[in-house]
Structures are given as structure tokens and as C-alpha cells.
User: Fold this.
Amino acid sequence: MKKLTIAILVLFIAGTAFAQQTATSKMEGKVLDATGAPLPGVSVEATSPKMVGKATAVTDGDGSYRLFSLPSGTYEVVFSLQGFKTLIRQNIIVQLATTVTLNVTLDQAAIEEQVTVIGQSPLIDVKSTVKGQTMTKEVFMSLPRSRNFDGLLSTVPGVQYEGNTGGLSVDGATGTENMWYMDGTDITQGHIGTRGQSAVMEMVEEVKVTASGYNAEFGGSMGGVVNVITRSGGNAFHGDIMAYYNDNNLLMQGKSRDYLRWSPYDDNLAEFVNDDDLYWAGGKKRDDYKRFEGVFNLGGYIVKDRLWFFGSFNPQYSRTYGSRGFLSDDPNLLVDPEATPSLDNVPIYTFYRKDFVWNGQMKLTAAPFKGLRMSASFVNNWSNYRGEIPSINGTSSKTYGGFGLSAWNRAGYDYPNLSAALMFDYSASNNFLISARAGYSMSNTKNQQIANDFTTYYNNTSSYVYQGVIDDNLLFYTGAINYSGSRTVLQRQKIEKYSGNLDLSYYVSLGGEHAWKAGAQLIRDQEDYANSAAFPMVNLYWNRTCSALSAYGVPAFRGTYGYYQVRGSWTSPYGYQWDIFRNSWALYLQDSWTIGGRLTINAGVRTESEYIPSFNPEYPGKPIKFDFDEKLAPRFGVVYDVFGDSTLKIFGSFGIYYDVMKLYLAEGSYGGFKWKTDYYTLDNPNFYEIGDEYPAGDTSAGAQADQAAGGTYMGTIDFRVPSFDTTDPNLKPVSQREISFGAEKKLTEDLSLSVRLVQKHLINTIEDIGVEDVEAGGELYFNANPGSDWIRAKFDEFAPGFWPQPRAKREYYGMNVSLEKRFSHNWQGGLNYTLSRVEGNYSGLSSSDENGRNSPNVERFFDMWFMMYRLDGQLLDGPLPQDRTHYFKAYGSYAFPFGLTVGVVGYGRSGLPVSTQLSVRNSYIYPNGYGDLGRLPFTVWGDIYAEYALKIAGKYNVSLNVQVNNFTNTKTWQAKSIAPNRTTMEISNEEFLSKTFDWQAALNSPGDPYWKNTVFNQFTSRYGTWTARFGARFSF
Assistant:
């Protein structure tokens, strides 16, 4: 026990860890005799090809047993007691993070005898209110799928990828509101909240997405929770060698779709074009694109029934070669600079882009002694690319930012990415389980191939005023610069997450059966980011006097030739640069109380402590901090097993869910962007000596602003001082309330029907809110809860008389009906329908107003005081841009006896609402509210997969497969042009407050002052063309 305690402490305190989600399940039930009396002392033993070792238990005084820490799979469970017939239950299916209730009756026997029952596996978890769906390897490997594990999540009711939500949308939420786990380890990207890692399907054993009803042990999601379990070894060796190929030949990719664009040569000309017809001779001369992929899997045992292993390697390579010309090479421009350039007479060059991906996975699972189950896994995604291809229309810069033509083929970045997980489950007794989890994940962007590596000089004024006084090589006009690319360099963007949790589960009979669970979790987020000027940035002001330091007590000054500024010098970097961490804690308690064997009440509470740190060490503090009492999240659910046999349950749940706050807000508000400007007199016209190459090998910070030019340092201004007082001191965390009801019915041994009703209400969000300073002019920004008393007081102070600041509103109402059939009789399938509405004025942490912008807590919803209103003064409210009323989904596969398997996935969905979005004062409003232009058309499409397999010598399989996406060749329109003006419209505060401003009359004013969009409300793009992929597989 001493070693066990040390192991727990090591995992929990010192483990390189992550936020975890339960990656295993449990089985429980009662054993009775023929009279219905409980049988104590019955030995229960469960085995599965997916589980190392055995799970064992002995029934207690009331005949109850529990088997903990079961990986998903198909089980055989043996019940034995002397004097009774041994009962063997086979083909008991256990899915991820579920409770299987298996009650049995043993008959007395005079002699040793056994009874085998095949099937009759419970389909319904009658202890849980959780709703979602689990897809196993056997399911998704026979269906059309993308190469990543999330490729089939859109088949789940209420779950779909939407471009305008910035990722996976679950029950109307946006892409930055989900939690993602790999083998129980949190792989959610901590900076903006999107998925942080990938795994190809062949590495995955099971994927589960949870949409609602989860207990207090889970937090951080206002959308869905996605858990991926990678493959494990077994008591036999098995392996795969697979290859996939696709290209953009017309035989593997259909003709491109028409789309509406503004001509790159005439910005007043709108035209429908087809890239294949316009550039590629109808698709016959496309850029040469090819993609190759291999998968190598090997699994087995090191010690049978004790230690298993699985390893996978997945290299991917794709490359594109393209021929391009540049309009700037048109010789006609030498004769007439105003001539319309053409690509007809320009030189043609060959460019390429090459992408490399090296994925890998390793996993060890062990059962060293009775009751202990352990696993360790590692997943690697490492990728990079080299080369970029200029625009096909010839408008790109030939010199790639001043580095020359060859730089196009040298550009690129590296993207390291990995995660690791440790799991430790110990069944100390029939009613006590100790679980510990640990993990680590990291992503980075580094090794920028083309980057500025010298001091840059920008002439804010012309030096020709000194013509004849200074050397001719120092004469430049206003705006001249010695570098046309970005003056910042992305050196690293390293995001790490460590955490660990410890869970204790205890079962006790007290007025029924109680399953008590308590847990603690520690999460450490770290970020090391450097996207800043690697060399000084010098701004020259010839023949000018500087008064910028007057407010700091420095009189106006100038040198002999004026003055200059330096950014990215010895005083501070210039750009995005920080090295920070934060520690967050979570605690939870929950009880699952089963009364009379049918009614289960799940009650619990979760609480968290988190903060946003300062991103500038010169200004320490925690500008946003939530203590445990500010993030109390109660959970309550009721489940009733109607007949007591796990064939019909009805359930309801209530919960409060808090977002794990992303760190994105701090990069702009709390010191992430560094900007200090140093001021000097310009006394030597040879400005190349300012911040020139490091003198005499001196690489110190001071040498980066070398004053060999003889300038006098006058002072520094910090333009990005973190302003913590612009944050509401009583800020409330982002939160949501959820209420759900539903029922599940087992129709046959492998067919079930479920219905779910759910309502989700946004309680609070956090946004940067713009408040116009009427007296001083300009805009002030505050981090607050929209509509709170604090922010309304700011409006009263700076902008009295304006329309009141509203609260953020998002309401989701949904009904899901789902019919699911497990694989049997050579086929499997699912059919579901969602009727839903998501309405309000706020789409979520990602902005569907801005076509899926992922800037959590810093979107544009509240940037201007009028953005939450229509022009008639009514509050903005209605179907949000991500709303789809109807969504139909179906999938299925059939395995023919001669080796052919065919799988199909089909979808049908309502179009998104279309709204007039008027550009106003460099922002936007919906003058007529949401949905005034109707909806986009209903869309139906499908994907198909076919695989033909041959069995050789009884133990080898060789197969060929093909997949066609959009085999229906759907072309339905998917977008419209929604902005009536192309130049922002200036509407005064008085005109807004009048509630009578006629924007259409203003748009039609003489002289076209707002550049009227002549294709307003016209369709712009269609559903994408069909594509195909071929594959081959050898397995043993």
C-alpha cells in the first residue's frame, strides 16, 4: 500500500499532467437466486480482447458487484458459486464512459454445470443522463470518413461542423466552446480553445462526443466534450500496412464550382467565374497536386495478460507544382504605367509547396496485479511545409517581401505537436476505486524560413530637403523603406498544458445504493510566444521637431537633421512577446443514488479557481481572477428505468457550465503586445549606422540600438501599458444553464430509439466593450459582462443618452430523435433528425457574424455602442447566423459475404439565415435585424466508401478501397453577398438616436459615396465539388 500511495502522489503532484476525462467504463449489477434472494460470495470475472488481464469482483451481502476501469469492447462475464450453475454471459458490449447494468439469476445445480447466454447486451445506460454518441473502430472504418478522428462527428444529433462558427458546433455553440481529450488528456488549445491535436482513424479505437447532461466531474465546456481513445495491443500480435493516394486530376476531383468575385483587374466588375475554365483549360491543366500517405500499425503483448503494446506510424506527404507569372512583369507597363496589365506576355516561373506530416502513436497497457490497471500513451503530430505558390491571377509580389523570386520556394514553418497521458486505476475493494490521471500536451510554430534579418529604416518624411548637403545615397522620398515584408519574425509560439487529477469513488448502501465520487484537478497552462522585431525598426523624421515627450516633461527637441524613433531596441521588444503560466484548480463532489433498483438521482457540484495573468512582467498581477465561490456549478439529474430491465429509461437533467477562460484576451489587454518607442536626435545623416549590424560581434540588447550615428537619447514612451482598471472588478465568468429531458428505448437486441429535448441559456459572457467618449472623442474599451451595472455606469459617464448597453443573449432549443442499430446480420446504421433554433444577439466565443472568427472574448459584437441595435432602435434579436431549423443525418454499411463492404453517410439540412450587414463607421450593424433576407437553400449530399477484402491463408487480409465525397455531386448555393455598401457608411450619433435614418436613401445618394454593392443579395458560392481517394491495406 505504501508503494501505491507513492505512485498516486507522483502522478498527482509531480506528473506532467493534463485535464482529464474518464476514458473507461464500469459494469455493475446484482446476482439473485431463483427465488429472487441476493447471492453473496459469487465470483464475477470479465474478460475482453480489448482489456489486458481480467476484471474480478465478489458479490457483497446484497448480491451486488462492480467491475471498474473497463475499456470499451465486447466482454465475456462469468458468474460462479459452488452449488449453482456457472453462468457465462457473452457479447456484452461496453462503450466509452458508460455504466453497464447486468443483473443475473443463478440456478441451483446438484453437479457442476454451466449455462452460456450469447447476446442480450444492455443497450441503454440507465444510470446516466449523458447524451451523445460513441463510434467504435468497427463502425467508422466501414464508413466514408476524413483522415482525422473528428471526421464523423457530424453524424451525431445536434453536432456539426459549421464554417461560420469557427469549428465544431454542438447544440448551437461555437468552435471555441468545446473540450477535446486524447486518451483522457486535454488537448484543447489553451489560447483560443480549438482542437489542438489530430489522430488518423487507423490509430483510434473509439471516439465519443457528449452533448449534454454530464456530471460534476466534467467542466470547461459550453458546447460538447470529445474524447478519443487510441488503440491498444492484445494477447495476439496484429498489424496493418496501409496506403492512401489522391490527386486533383479530373478523374479524382470534379470540375470546380462557379463563384462570384470582384475582378482583380477592375474592382468595379463583379463576375461569375470558374477557376477550371478561367485558368486550367477546363480542369485539364491544373496545378500538379499529389498526396501520399502510409500507415504502419503493430500491436501485441510483451507479457500475456499483463503488459500490452501498440505502435503506429503515419507519414504523409503532399506537393503542388504551379506555373505563375506576375503582372508587374508586363512590358506594356514600361511604355504606359497606367495600362491594364496582362499575363499574356510575361515570363512564367515554376513554384511549389511541399507539406510533410509525421504522425505517431505509442501505447502501453498493463495489469501488474489484481485490481490495478495502468496505461501510458504518446501521440505525436509533427508537420512542416516548404515553398509557397503565388496567386494565379498574377497580383502577388514577385520579390516575396523583398527577398527575391527564389524566396517563394524557400518559405515555410515547422509545427511540433505532441501529447502524453498516464492512467492509473486501482480497485481497492468491491466498492472503492482510486483513479489518477496525468498528461502533457504541446504545440509550437517555429523555424520561419524567410524572415527579416537586418535593421529596417522607414522615411516618414523626405530627406530631399537636404539635397546637396548629404550624400546622394542617403536621399529618399517619404514612405521609402529598405524592406517591404513584415518587420516582425515569428520565432516561437509554444503552448503547453500540464495537469493531473485524483478521483476517489466509493459505493455504499444507505437508503439505496450510493456511488460517491470526489476529485481534485490541477491544470498548468504555459505559453512562450515571440512574434516580434528581431532587429531594430528605425523611423526617420527629416527636418522635424519632436514634441511627443512633452507630456513626460521633456521639451520639444530636434537634432541637426531632425529626429528618429527606434522600436525593438534595448528598452523593449516590439511585437507579441510573452512567457507566462497560470495554475487552475477544480474540485468536485457527486453522488449517484439508486433507489429501488430503478430510480437514479445524480447530484453534484463542481467548483473551479482560475485567473488570467499579466503578460508583462513589469506589471505583475492577475487582472481577471475567479475564486472557487465564483464558479460553483451545480449538476442534477434523474433517470428512471421504467421496467427495471434496462430496456426503457426516461431522464432529465439540470446543470450550470462554466467556460475555461482562454488566454487570448490577455495578449491585447494585459501586456502581450509590447510597444516601446525610443526617441533620439538625428545629428548624423548616415542613418545606416543606427541599429546597424551588431558592432564587433556585440549581441547585447544595447547594441541593437547602437548610437554610432551620434544621436542623443531623449526618452521612451510605452504605448501598451497594461490597463487593469479597464476590467470590471466584479466580473462574472462565462457560463451557461442547461436543461434536458429525454427517453431511450431498446427496440430489439441491437436496435434502440432515443429522444432528447434540450434548452441552453447563456447566463454571462465576457467581451471587450467599446464606449464612446463623447467629450474627448475616440473610443474607450472595457473588459466586462455586457449589460452589467458596471459597464452601464461607464456608458452613463462617457456617453450619456445613448441606448442602454444590452446583455448578451443566446438561447438554444433543440429536439433530437435518433434510431441506432448495432452491427449484426452484416449491417449497421443510424438515422437521426434535429429540430432546433438558436437565437439572440451573440453567437458565442467564436463569431458567426464574422464568418467564424476565433477570438474568444475579443469579438466585435460590442465594439460600438450601436451594434446591438437595429436602425429603428429595436434590440437586435432573432435567429443567429449559425441557426439551422432542420438537420437530417443517416449512415450505414453492409458487409457482403464475398468480401465487399459498402458504407454511406448522408445529410440534409436547412440553409442558414441571411441578413443585411451594413458597414458603418468601420464596424457593422444589421439595420433590419437577423434573417431579413430569408435563408439559403436546403442542401442534401452524401459520401460513399467501398472496400473489397480477400483473406489469405486464414490469417492475412488484403483489401482495396475507394471513397468518394459528395458522390451526389451537390452544387447547392451556400453563401450570398450580404453587405450593401463597399465603403463604410458614416452615420452620426444623432442620426442613430433619431431612429429614422434611411440607409437605403444614403446608399443611393448622388456620386455613389458608399460604393454601392451591385451584387448585394446575390449568391456567391456553391457546395464544393466531388473528390475521390484510393487506398490499400494488408493486415494480419
The first strand starts at residue 25 and ends at 33. The chain has a mean pLDDT of 92. The radius of gyration is 32 Å. Helices lie at 2-14, 137-140, 275-279, 332-335, 664-669, 789-798, 989-994, 999-1003.
